[in-house]
Specification:
The chain has 649 residues and is an alpha+beta fold. The chain folds into 3 domains: 229 residues, Up-down Bundle (Rhopdopsin 7-helix transmembrane proteins), CATH 1.20.1070; 126 residues, GAF domain (Beta-Lactamase, 2-Layer Sandwich); 121 residues, 2-Layer Sandwich (Heat Shock Protein 90), CATH 3.30.565.10. The strands form 3 sheets. It has a 5-stranded mixed beta sheet, with helices on one face. Strands 3-6-5-4 form a 4-stranded antiparallel beta sheet, with helices on both faces. A two-stranded antiparallel ribbon has the order 1-2.
C-alpha cells in the first residue's frame, strides 16, 4: 500500500506543480493532481486499516478518510477526462460533482459512515507475501447505492469520452483513456468485492489499491507522452515562427529598402518639382514683363534680371543684330565685349555653345584674357532665331567653376531663347506693320485730299483768279462765278471736315446724325449744280452702330450720285419710329437697272452688308431715266439676317 501511496503523492506533486506553473494553468493536470492526492489518501487509509485491530478506529478511518478519498478520486478523474478530451458538458459535470459532494457529506453525517451500517467482528486475512490484513465484517449503508449509481454514471461518461475521441483523428489519446478507464473499472470492481464479498480468499482491497496505482502510472505515462508531443509541437511551432519571423524580417528589410528608395525618389521629385515651379514662375514673370512693357529695350533689361535669378547666374545679356543690345552696359565692359563676340559666333553658326569662358575656342586672346580677369567660369550662348532669320543671341554666365550648365538647364535656355526670339520678332513685325499702316494712311489721306479737297480748291483758285476780269466784262457772269466759288469753298470745307472726322473715329461716334449728313450734303453740293435737301426728325437718336451704318450708306449713295447719276437734286430723310428708323435717299438722275449692275461695282453690296450687320435691310428702286430711290430700314427687334449679297428691289 505504501508503494501505491508514494506513487500517488509523487504524481500529485509533479502534475500539480506543472499545472500551476503553466500559463494559462493546465486544468487537466490540476484535476489529475487532485485525483492522485485523493488516491494517496485512500492508499494511506487502506494501509492503516490493514493493521488496525481496534473496531472504533477502523470505522473512523473508513468514515473520515478512505470513503471520502475514494469518492473524490472518482470525481476528479471525471473532470480530468473532461478536460483532456475537450468534452465539457458543464451542467452535467457540475451536477455529477454535486452528487459526489452530497455522498461525502452524507458519509460524514452518518454515525459509522457509508460503508458500515451494521458491525461484525474484526477478521484477519492472509495476502500474498505472508502478510496478515485486518478487515471488518459489516454491511454498507443503504445510501451507498447512490454512491454506486454516481460511479456508474461517471464510468458511462468516461466511455462516452473514449467513444468521442475514437471518432476524431486522435486515436492514441482514445486508446490511453480506454486503458485508464479499464484499470479504473478493475479497481472499482475490486472495491465493490471488498464491500460485498468480505469472505473472499484473495483480498480485493489489496488489489484495489494496486489497480489505483496502475491507473496513476498509466495516466502519468499518458500525460508524459502528451507533454512530449506538446513539446514537439512547440518546437515545430517555434521553428515555424522563427521561419515566419525571418521571412517577416526579410520583408521588412525589403520594405525598408523600397521605402528608402521611394524617399530618395520623392525627394528628387520634390526638388525637380520645386525647380520646375521656379522655372514656371520665372517664365511667367518674363511673359508678364513683355506683356506690360513700354519698350523692347526696357522689357529685355527686366527679362535679363529674371533670367539671372532663374539660372543662378552672375550675368545675362541679350545681343540684338546691328549692335543693339540690352541697356546698362559700357563698350569697354569685358562681359559686354565677350557677349558681343559670342553673339556674333552663335548667330553665324545658329548652334548653342556651352563651355568655359576662358578656354572657349574661336575667341581672340584678348577676349579670353578679359574673361579670365573677370572671373568668368561657365558660359552658354543661345542663338535667337525667328522665321525671318536670326534676331539676336542670349548669353548667360556663371562664375562658379563647379556649377556647369546641366542638360535640363540647356533645354530651359533653349525654351527661354525661343520665347525671347518670338517677342523680338513680334516687336519687329509690329513696328513694321505700324509703319506700313501709317504710310498707307498717309497715302489714303493724300488720295482723298487730291480727289476731293485739292480739286475743289484748285477749281476755286482758278475761278478766283478770273473773277475780277469776268466781273468787269459781265457783272452777271461774275456774280454767277462768285456763287460757284462760294459753293466750291463750302464743298472743300465740308470735305475737309469729313476727312477730319474719318481721322478721329470718336468724333464720328459723338456727332449727331443730322450734322454728319449735312456735311456730306455740303460736300456733294459743291461738286456740281446740285440741290441737296437733308431732313432728320427731331429727337431721332439712334444707337451708335445704326447711326454709323446710316452715315456710311448715305456716303456711298452720294458717291454714286456724284459719279454716275448726273442728277440736279438729291433728297435725304430720316424718320424715327418707336420700333426702329428709316433712311430714304432719292435723286432725279439717269437711274439704272439694279439687276444689271456690273460685277466689279460693290457699292450696293457694301451698303446691304452694313445694314445687315446692325439688323437692318436695304431696298433699291431704280430704272433707266427715272432716277433712284434707296430705302434703309432698321428695327429694334430685327428679323433673322439674310445671307449677304441679296437685295430688295
Amino acid at each position: 500500500m505504501g508503494v501505491a501511496a508514494g506513487i500517488a503523492i509523487l504524481a500529485a506533486l509533479i502534475h500539480g506543480l506543472v499545472g500551476l506553473v503553466r500559463r494559462p494553468r493546465d486544468r487537466a493536470r490540476l484535476a489529475f493532481a487532485t485525483a492522485s492526492l485523493a488516491a494517496a489518501v485512500a492508499a494511506l487509509a487502506a494501509s492503516a486499516l490493514y493493521t488496525e485491530s481496534d473496531m472504533a478506529t477502523h470505522v473512523a478511518i473508513t468514515k473520515w478518510a478512505f470513503f471520502p478519498a475514494s469518492v473524490a478520486w472518482t470525481a476528479a478523474v471525471v473532470w480530468f477526462v473532461a478536460f483532456t478530451a475537450g468534452i465539457l458538458p458543464r451542467r452535467f459535470l457540475l451536477t455529477l460533482t454535486a452528487g459526489f459532494a452530497s455522498v461525502i457529506v452524507a458519509d460524514l453525517m452518518l454515525p459509522r459512515g457509508m460503508l458500515h451500517d451494521t458491525l461484525g467482528t474484526l477478521r484477519p486475512r492472509h495476502v500474498p507475501g505472508g502478510s496478515v490484513m485486518v478487515t471488518v465484517g459489516s454491511s454498507p449503508h443503504t445510501l451507498n447505492i447512490v454512491a454506486d449509481a454516481l460511479t456508474v454514471v461517471a464510468f458511462g461518461f468516461l466511455c462516452f469520452a473514449v467513444y468521442r475521441l475514437r471518432r476524431l483523428p486522435s486515436r492514441g489519446r482514445a486508446r490511453d483513456l480506454a486503458l485508464m478507464t479499464t484499470l479504473l473499472a478493475v479497481a472499482t470492481l475490486f472495491d465493490g468485492i471488498n464491500e460485498y464479498a468480505a469472505g473472499a480468499s484473495l483480498s480485493p482491497l489489496y488489489l484495489t489499491q494496486l489497480s489505483f496505482a496502475g491507473v496513476i502510472v498509466a495516466v502519468s505515462l499518458y500525460l508524459r507522452r502528451e507533454a512530449l508531443r506538446t513539446e514537439t509541437d512547440l518546437r515545430r511551432y517555434r521553428t515555424h515562427m522563427d521561419e515566419l519571423v525571418e521571412a517577416r524580417v526579410r520583408e521588412l528589410d525589403e520594405a525598408r529598402t523600397r521605402l528608402a528608395e521611394e524617399t530618395r525618389e520623392r525627394r528628387t521629385t520634390e526638388i525637380a518639382l520645386r525647380r520646375r515651379v521656379e522655372e514656371l514662375n520665372a517664365l511667367q514673370r518674363i511673359a508678364q514683363i513683355f506683356a506690360g512693357r513700354s519698350t523692347l529695350a526696357q522689357a529685355l533689361d527686366q527679362a535679363t534680371g529674371a533670367i539671372i535669378g532663374l539660372f543662378r547666374a552672375s550675368y545675362a545679356h541679350v545681343q540684338l543684330p546691328c549692335g543693339d543690345s540690352t541697356p546698362g552696359e559700357t563698350p569697354d565692359d569685358p562681359l559686354a565685349s565677350l557677349a558681343r563676340r559670342l553673339s556674333a559666333q552663335v548667330m553665324e553658326s545658329d548652334v548653342m555653345l556651352v563651355g568655359e569662358a576662358p578656354g572657349w575656342e574661336g575667341l581672340p586672346d584678348e577676349a579670353r584674357r578679359s574673361a579670365r580677369d573677370a572671373g568668368l567660369a561657365h558660359v552658354v550662348a543661345e542663338p535667337l532665331a525667328a522665321p525671318s532669320g536670326p534676331v539676336g543671341a542670349l548669353i548667360i554666365v556663371r562664375e562658379t567653376l563647379d556649377d556647369p550648365f546641366t542638360d535640363e538647364e540647356r533645354q530651359l535656355v533653349r525654351t527661354v531663347g525661343e520665347a525671347l526670339a518670338a517677342v523680338i520678332e513680334i516687336d519687329r513685325l509690329y513696328h513694321r506693320a505700324t509703319e506700313q499702316a501709317a504710310a498707307e494712311e498717309r497715302q489714303a489721306l493724300a488720295r482723298d485730299l487730291h480727289d476731293a479737297v485739292t480739286q475743289s480748291l484748285y477749281s476755286a483758285a482758278l475761278i478766283a483768279e478770273a473773277l475780277p476780269l469776268v466781273w468787269e466784262r459781265d457783272p452777271a457772269e461774275g456774280a454767277e462765278n462768285l456763287a460757284r466759288l462760294r459753293r466750291l469753298v463750302r464743298s472743300a470745307l465740308a470735305e475737309m471736315r469729313t476727312l477730319l472726322v474719318e481721322l478721329r473715329p470718336t468724333e464720328l461716334e459723338a456727332a449727331p446724325l443730322q450734322t454728319l449728313l449735312e456735311r456730306l450734303g455740303d460736300a456733294l453740293a459743291g461738286q456740281g449744280r446740285l440741290d441737296v435737301a437733308i431732313q432728320v426728325d427731331d429727337g431721332a437718336e439712334l444707337p451708335t452702330d445704326v447711326k454709323i451704318a446710316f452715315y456710311r450708306v448715305t456716303q456711298e449713295a452720294f458717291g454714286n450720285v456724284a459719279k454716275y447719276a448726273h442728277a440736279t437734286s438729291v433728297g435725304v430723310s430720316v424718320h424715327r419710329a418707336h420700333d426702329g428708323a428709316a433712311l430714304s435717299i432719292k435723286d432725279d438722275g439717269c437711274g439704272f437697272d439694279p439687276s444689271a449692275v456690273p460685277r466689279g461695282h460693290m457699292g450696293l453690296r457694301i451698303m446691304d452688308e452694313r445694314l445687315k450687320a446692325v439688323g437692318g435691310s436695304l431696298s433699291v428702286t431704280s430704272a433707266p431715266g427715272h432716277g433712284t430711290s434707296i430705302e434703309a430700314v432698321w428695327r429694334a427687334a430685327a428679323s433673322p439676317r439674310r445671307p449677304p449679297g441679296t437685295l430688295d428691289t
